[in-house]
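ok trying this again, last paste got cut off
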Amino acid sequence: MDLSGKIISQLPEVGGNSKTGNAWRKQEFILETGGQYPKKVCVSLWGDKIDQFGLKVGEQVTLGIDVESREYNGRWYTEVKAYKVDRTAGGGAPSAMPEVDTFYSESEEDKLPF
């Protein structure tokens, strides 16, 4: 699933050790979607992805996300985790195809025989 918008806030990084003794770290960002009714979504980055993606406040991004809910003591908690980041340029993505003025040629050698 993809989610696009602007990073409007960066929360402090948190970390610790799991029950098995493995170190973990997490950083959350607030993304504001566009459109007539913008929404704010808290998105988490875990471990090495924090440094790999290097998200900054003010960036326009499209995030590949996973949404997961867990139950704890009778309550449900939902987390939005980002696994991919595409940075959006201001004008849009460059086209992969070259610009073509015409699809035919006036010269005789380019004409089809039928």
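PB: full thing came through this time. Residues 49-53 form the longest helix (5 residues).
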